[in-house]
Structure formats: C-alpha cells, structure tokens
Queue: 3 jobs
Job 1
Amino acid sequence: MAQKIESSLKNMVISLLVITLVAGLSLGFVQQVTKEPIANSKQQKQIEAISAVVPEFNNNPLERPLPQPVFIDEVKECTVYTAIKDSVVVGYAILATSSGFGGDVELMVGFTPDGKIYNTSVVSHQETPGLGDKMTTEKFRSQFIGFDNKTQKARVKKDGGDVDALTAATISSRAFCSAINKAYRAFCVVTKDESGHDAESGATKHNN
C-alpha cells in the first residue's frame, strides 16, 4: 500500500512538472509571436498621436532624430518628437504628464517652430466622466490652437490666466494647463529658446 501511495505521488509530481514545462514553453511562444505586432501597434498609435498635433511631416519622429527626454521636474519627464518635412523642421510633438482629479493626465502638445501651439491631444486620463473628461472635446482644446506662451498664460482664468476652465472641473482644467506648461518648457530646452515665457510662474526662463 505504501509503495502504491509513493508511486502515485511520484507520478503526480512528474505530471505537474510536465504541465508547467509545456505551459511555460507555450507562453514563451505566444509572447514571441505577439511581441512584434504589439510593438508595431504601439508605434502606430504614437505616430497617430504625433500626426494629430503637428503640421504634415514625412520623417519618422520615432526614429531620427531620436525622441528626446527632457526632465521638467524631479518626477516626470517630457518626451520630444521632432516632425520634419523635406529636411525642414515643421514642428515638435511633446508628450507631457500632470496630475489630474482622478490620476495622471497624459497630453501630446504640438508646437510650430516659433513656439505657438498647433494642436493638442489627450493621450490618456482618468478624469470623471461628464466633467473632467470633457478636456478631450474639441470645444475645450480649440482654445489652445495658436496659443502663444510668450504672450498668454496657460492657466485657468480663476488663477489669473487666459484659459476657460471646464464647468465643475477646475482641477482637471488645471492639470491640462500644467501639462501645456511642462511641454512648453521642454520645447524651450530643446530649441534653446532663451526668451521663453513661463506661463505658470509669469517669469522669463533662461535655459543654459
């Protein structure tokens, strides 16, 4: 009887090892097969987000020149993508993150070479449906088209700025503006614009 129990336990252990091995190999195979399509899908979404905020370009902003990380504060960094058409820089798409009411707000901000905002796109957010999530609407975002941080303040009017806040969603509006300001400061660093106006503090920034 003892020998039978020992034999059953041994068979069980062997079976579990075989199942674990097969499962591991299967997962590895599936991961390898799906790795490239997932990467291509992610790259395509990035290109689409960039295309939505800058003038037409014919380079690949994800390759050359390489995306440039710019640290704006100690926690978050902005990523700058350069859009080029026929060897001429037509714009910069800058990915910036700020803290909203429900979590991080990730914004793609497009600038023309003179520093004006061409367009914006909300990449991700966790804001309240029907309130803060209205930052994704064209009605709210359209006020930033042509926005010039050198002469305008990317702050809500309640805070002395030039931006109409979303109704009952001031925190979300402030998060959007904060991302705009971070993106602009990154633009100044990358383009070495030493006369860039810091709309958040009202001061003139000088980049070394």
Job 2
Amino acid sequence: MYKGLFLLLTAEFSFALATVFVKFITNNSDIPPIEITFFRVLIGTFVTLGYMIRTHASFRPKRPLLVFGRAIFSLSALIVFFYAVEKTSVTKANMLNMTYPVFIFILAPLFRIQSVHKSAFIFLIAAMGGITLVMNPDFSRIQTGDLIGLLSGILAAFAIIALSFARLYDSTVLIVFYLMALGTVCNGLIMIPFFVMPQDSELILLVASGVSGVAGQVFLTMGYKYVNARTGSMISSSRILFSALLGVMFFSDKLSPHIITGGIMIMTAIIGISALQRRNQEPPFTDH
C-alpha cells in the first residue's frame, strides 16, 4: 500500500514538473506547444517500444478503431493541455485539466459504462463551482487560456472513456504504444510548418519535459499494481497541490482566495466521485 502511494505521488509530481518545463519553454522561446508534444510522444514511443520488444508483446491490435480512437482523443487532450500551460498559469492549467474525472462521471452513463449515483450530483455541483472560481470569468473578455485548460479536461475524459472500451480487447501497453507512435507521426507532420530549431538550453528543457511526462506514466502504471482504482483516483488529485506549489515557486503564480477555494472544491469533487466508483473498476490511464 505505501509503495503504491509513493509511486502514485511520484507520478503526479512528475506530471506537474513536466508542465513547469513546458512553461519555461513557452515563456522564453518561440517553440510552439505542438513541438513540445512531439518530444513527449517521441520519447514515449521509444520507451513503450523497448518494453514491448523486451516482453515479446504483440503489436497487432484486436480492435484497431478503438485503439486509434483512443490515440486521437488522448493526443488532442495533450496538445490542448500544453497550449493551456502556454496561455495561462501552471496552477490553473493543471487544476482545470484535472477536472477530467468529473466529466468522465457525467459522460459515462451516455456510453453505458456506469450509472450515476445520486450522491454524485453533490460532487458535480462542487466541481462546477470550483471550476467557476478557478476561471473567475470576466464576461467583458474571453479568458482563452482557462477555456483551453477546461477543454483539455473534457478531451481527456473522452480519451479515458475510449480507453475503457479499447482495454476490453487490447493491453494497456499496446494502446499506449500506438498513442505514442501515432502521435509521433502525426505531430511530426503537423509541426513541420511551425518547427523552431531549439537552442541547447531549449533542447534540454524539451527532453526534460518529455522524460518527466513519460516517467509519470511509468510510475502511474507501477503504482496501480499496489492500490485499487478508487484509492489511486483519489491520490491523483495531488497533482493540483504539486502544480500549485511549483507554480508559486518558479513563476510566482498568484494563489488568490477564489483559486484556492476553487482548487479545494475540485479536489473534493474528484475524491468524492472516486469514492463512489466500483472497487473493480480499472484505473484511468492519463497521458500528461
């Protein structure tokens, strides 16, 4: 249990740290988020490819459409999330992205994955209130970064729902491999017109961001071997705290009362909704 707790906390810290490197890159260079995403999925491709070769895993998916659908949603969520980190603070981008468990709970009945417990509506209201406080909308102007951050959470929810179907037929590692491989090819083609040759320091940050994200993925997968899905989902909310602390340390992110209150409400909603999940439900597999 304690080993699982340590691994999952390390995973969430790694995900939060990756966004710090992304923010350094976007603040100090013209490198676009699409290029940052490319380095993440490229490193992930080599890691998952090596693992599959070492374990003699099959590369042939049983349900290609589900695997590719999952890859498209997850890659879209990752790209949009990095744009959110560029446009808003590290703290707010992570808080809004971490709303994905709430949207999963809202969307799941539409896909007949699970029914919504009556008590969940209390947590859904808390989550919506928290999102409103974090975004602190000013109706005189559109807060692009916050809207993009919320969109990344919605896309991540669709990605995980797609994963729940794909995992009925194929292994998680095969699904992640195709996510990374397809992302490398698609990102590589899309970023050609926007490619910016990184300087030495920028290249180090790009690699660091990619390694941190992939490390988070590895630690997350290892951690779920020692805890159940419900406990793991609760621990995942710790990324909100890690991102807030790192945002304050490195970028002097402002933690106003409404952001702190909103963050607490979102965390409470995530923990509450996770507590209502069935014990035998498989854990969500995040990619950022």
Job 3
Amino acid sequence: MGGLGLVLVAVAFLGLINVAYDAMVNQESRTASENRARTREIALTVAEVADQPTRIVAVARAFEQLRQEMFKELDYHSRVRVRIWRQGQLLYNSSPGLPDVLPGHAAPRPAGVYGWVSCIENNAAAGLLVERSHEIDDAWMFTWSGARFLLTPTLISLPFLLFPAWLIIRFGLSPLRAAADAIEQRATTDLTALPESKYRELSPLIGAINRLMERLNQRIEHEHEFLTDAAHELKTPLAVIQINAHLLQSRCGSGEAPERLLEPAIGLRDGVTRATHMVHQLLALERTGTDSGDRSMPMIAFDSLLRDRVAAAAPLALQRNMEIELCAAGSYPMEIHRESMAALLDNLIGNAIKYSPDGSRVMVGLAPYSEGIRLVVSDQGPGIAPELRERVFERFYRIPGGDDAGSGLGLAIAERAATRNGGVIRLDSRADGTGLVVIVDFATPS
C-alpha cells in the first residue's frame, strides 16, 4: 500500500494513544461506576443471609478473594476496603489497617497517597449497611501491566480493522492506478486525450489531465510551426548570399576584383554554407519529431531505401577517394516513415564520410538479428570516447577539442528518427578499438 499503509498504521497508533489517554482521564469515573456495581452486588448477596453473621463474613471474604484472583495476572495493586455493619455493629472490615476516613480523589493529599472513591448501600429492612471504598491508582496506567491491559484488545482487533481498510483502498483506487498505467505506457510524444472515466470521482482528474495535454499539444504545434516557418524563410536569403559569395570568389580568382577580397569571400562562402547546413538540419530535426504518434506508416523495402541513400552519398565519398561498402543481402520490408528514415541514413552515412580520413572505407550493413533488423554503419575515423557516447545525442552538443564545422544536430536527428521508426540507436567502436560503429536495432513484430 505504500504511503497509504503508513497512514493507516499512524492512525491506528494514534488511536491506541487516545485509548490510553481516555483511560487515564476517565479513571475516576470508571472506578466510581465499578465500585457502585460491586457494592450493590455485595449488599444484595449478604442480604440473603442477614440473620447469619458468620455467613455474612464468609460471603464478604469470598468476594475479596475473587477480586484478587481476577487482577492477579495484571499486577494490579489498587486496594479495596469493604466494611459491613449489622444492626449498627461493625461486622466485617477487609482492611483494618486503613484509617477510618480515606482521602478523596479531588482533595489535596500527600505525595504517594492516592485518592479513593466510596459507595454505601443501606438495607434498612435487613439492618445491613455495606460500604466499599476503591483506591484510584493512576501510576498503574504507566506500567507495562497497565498498558497491556488497556491496549491488548485494540492490538488484537487491529488486523481485523486494517484488512478491510486495505481492501477498500486497493479496489477503490484501482481506477486511478489504471489511469496512471495508461499514462505511463504512452510514448513521450503521445498527447492524445485519455478516455473518459465512468467513475464520477475520477472524472475531474481525467478532465484536467486532458485539458493540460491539449494545451501542451497546442504549444508544441506552435513551436513546430515557428521553427519550420523560420527555417523556410531563412533558406531563400541564405541561397542569395551564397550565390553572391560564389560570384565574388570567382571574380577575385579571375582578377575582376581585388585579390585582397579573396580570403573574405571564401570565409563568407563557408559561413553561408554552414548556416545553410544548419537550416537543413533544423528542418530535418523538426520532421523527425512531428507526428510521431502516427502509427499508420507505409510498408517500404528498407534495403532499397538504404541503397538509394548510399548512392546519394557516393559523390561525396569519391571526392575524398573513399569507398562505401554496402552489405544488405535479402529483402527487408518494414513499416517506415520514409522522410525521417532518410534523414537517419543521410546523417549516419554523412558523418561516417565526414570524420573518416581520405582514402579510408565506410562499411554499411543491413542484416537480421534475433529480434528484428539491424543497421550498422562503421567508419575509420577518430571515434567517440565511451564517456561521451550518451552526450553526443544532445542537440547542439559537440565533442570538446573537435575542429569540425558540424552543427551538433546529426546524431540528435538520427536518434529521433530511429525512435520514430521503432528503433534503438547505440554507439560502439570497431574490434580493434578504432573508429566509430553506429548500431540501430529495429524490432519487428513476431
């Protein structure tokens, strides 16, 4: 039960304390009530033998012995005095050592002296007068014997109280747990409304959650629209600046412009190229994250898409005298979001080419494994240290000390695209400890 169980135990404990406190506060009234009942019981019993003084004494002693037997195991030391008069003559006194007048409970008394409550029953017809005085022993409440006497019934009944409470809480909160499980099992991007609850008490909570998810969904959509619109708006001026940078550079090279402008022209071109690449990466990141809750993806031949993306990256590899080796024997149809999967392949293959030295080889493999299909992209570059392999999936994170002109979005795009297509991406190194191996596992339905 967790926290609810602790609450129940705390409530039960407070209840036990309340029982003990109530017993101490009401000790005088309880003792007075008991004393009246006992006095009347003795008076009625001895009235039947009023004409036999010996029997009267025997009956009184029997009552005293019975009381001692009752409280023997409780270690209850509270004293009782019973006195019986017959025809005005004291016939029986159970405690002759006590003073004739006993201290009252409310009256001031010396330390260590407890109060008494007294009751008198007068039977004029039989000529009998019975007086019973009972000592109020407050200190007994603080002994182990007193605590056991007061709390044992409550402790024995506690399991019978907690078990029904546990059942009520367990079954009463089951709809809330079901709603929590439904939310827990959702993807992080699934903000669709929860089904309405048939329980009136739970309906306000479900309604509040649905309204919150609706507001979050609207906010995310606005952010997506802003990012997409901004990226699209930037593409046109960046293209114009890039054309002018190329024109300026070509004129500097042909002598139409001063040679001193050549270096700024090259810097301008490189900066615009990097900015254009960043815009394209932002658009790709946006596309890999939108509509991820849509499961109606078409069936596409993964191996065919992979061949197309390798062919698209081949010219870049040829410029650096690099080889791309593709190993994808067989056909692998999958439900794929084509645009995001293309972004995944372009970034992984592009990074492998970008960070590998000239004349090296990039290996791209697609093969089945125990739970589905595995994509492997291996290069001969510097690799990534094991302690940084989690952080490189963060947006705009770049490895310290690197001199590349990347945007820090490539692996973030790859991870989001893999997640959108039901894959899990991880990084490793080659068998000889060099390079970087990117592994993407796509689990397929059995």
